[in-house]
Amino acid sequence: MTKINTTNKTLADIPAKYCRIILTEDNTNWHRLVETKEGGLEYRMGAGKRKNATPRTFRTLVRLIVLQAKTHQLENIAIHLGAMGCPKLEAMGEEWFFRTLSENLQLAQYEFNVYKTKPDKTKKLQEILVCGISSPVEKQSFSTGLTIGEGANITRDIANTPSDDMTPSLLAKATQNALKGTKAKVKIFDQKAITKEKMGLLLAVGKGAYDPPKFIVIEYWGAGKPTGNKKDSNLKPIALVGKGITYDSGGLNVKPSGSMHEMHLDMSGGASLIGTMYAIAKLGLKKNVVAFIPAAENSISAESMRAGDIATSMSGQTVEILHTDAEGRLVLADAMTYAAKYYTPSVMLDVATLTGASLVALGQQASAIMTKNQSLQNTLVELGEETGDLMWPLPLWEEYKASLKSTRADLANIATNFSRFGGCIEGGTFLSFFAPKKTPWAHIDIAPRMDSIPSDKLAKGATGEPVRMLVRFVETYK
Ligand code: BES
Ligand code: MN
Ligand code: ZN
Hints:
Helix content is 33%, strand content 19%. It is α/β, with parallel strands linked by helices. Strands 7, 8, 9, 10, 11, 14, 15, 16 and 18 form a 9-stranded mixed β-sheet that branches.
C-alpha cells in the first residue's frame, strides 16, 4: 500500500528523497527522468496544454502520474497540482478539484496481490507527497476523496477475490468486516429467513450451490431513523440494491468456457454498495441510506433450477425461468420487493453486472442506465461526468414489456421468443415489473465497467465503480 500524505510546502522545499513530478505542456506521451544538481530525481512529464484540460483528462493524468511512478520504480514521489490556468477545471470548483485529485491517487495506487506467493523484488511506490495543501477546504476535500477512494478499493478487494473465498456467507462476513466500527448496521438473512420472506427467486438461483444464499442489508441512519410519524417522510431512506452473484457459471444453461472465468466479478454491484456504505458512514453524511445485497452462487448440480421451472417471487408474481443464466434480474427482483415493502424508500437505484448486451451497446466506457424518471436520468448522467463513473441512458419504454409475458407464468426472465436483440433493455424491463410504483427508480447495468481496460490506467480487474457516483448521489439527492 502506498501512503498518500499532504504538506503545505512547495515542491522546492521538500527533502531530496522525493522524486519531484514536474508537469509540462508537452504531449502526454512525452516524459524524462532526470537527475537534479542536488543529486535528487525529477520526473518531467507532458500533461498537454493547460487550457485544454477537462475533468476527464485530469483524472487520467492523476492516474498516469502514479502509473509512471510505479513503472520507473520510484519509491517516493512529490506532486503539486492546481487548477490555475485550466478554465474547465477551475469551473468545477476547489472542492471538486482536490477531491478528484485524491480519489484518483487512491484508485491508481491500488494493487491486488493477495494471491501472489513469491516476493516481488521490484521497488514499490511507498509514498505520494502532495504539496500545496494548506487551506481548510483543500485539506477537507482531499481527505474526503481519500475516503471515497478507499471505499472504491474495498469494493475492488471484495470483487477481485475468487469465488471460493467469496461465497455468499463469506460475502456476508466481508460486509460485516468492512463496516466494523462504523455507524452502518449490517443484518444478514440466512436461507431460513429468506424462505420466511418468500423470496422464491433468490432461493431458486441459489439452490444449486454448496453455500446457500444470503440476503445482506446495510442500514445507515445519518439523518435519524424514521419513527413512523407522518412528519418523518423526509427521513425516507435512499434504497440501493446490488447484485451479489458470487459466481455465475450460467447454471444449467452453462456459459461457454471463454465467458466464464471472470464471473467471480458478478457480485460487483453488491460490492460497490459495501464500498459506498463504508464511505458515507466514514464521512458521516447526514443522510439515510439502506443497501440490499441478494447474494447467491449460480451453480450447477442436481439441485439447480432448471430452464422451464416456474418460481414465485416475493412480489407474488410467478416467473418462468426460460434461461438459467439470466439470474441477476431474479435475485434483484426479490431484493427490490423487500426494500420497497419494509423501507418505503424515497428513491431506489439498483446496481448490477446484468448483461453482456450492455457491452455490445456501450463498449466498456460507461455503465448503462434505465429509468422512466427524466430528472433522475439527468442527475445520474451529470454525476457520472462529475465523478468519472460514466453513465449513459437506454430507453425503458412500455412496449418492451410485451416480450416478457409468459404463457405458463406471469413473466419470463428472458424474451419468450429468445430474441437476442436489446438484451440490456430486456434486463431493465424485467426489473421494472418489480420496481415500486410511485418511487423514482433507476437500473444501472455496470457490466461494461466490471473489468478495467488499459485506458483506465488502473490495476487489472475490478474498477470499484460506481462508488464515486453513488456517494455523490447520496450527498446531493433531495
Ligand atoms: N453476469 C452476466 C452478465 C455479464 C456478462 C456481465 C459479461 C459481465 C460480462 C449475467 O448474469 C448473464 O449471464 N446475462 C446473460 C443474459 C441472457 C441469458 C439473457 C447474458 O448477458 O448473456
Ligand atoms: Mn448469468
Ligand atoms: Zn450474472
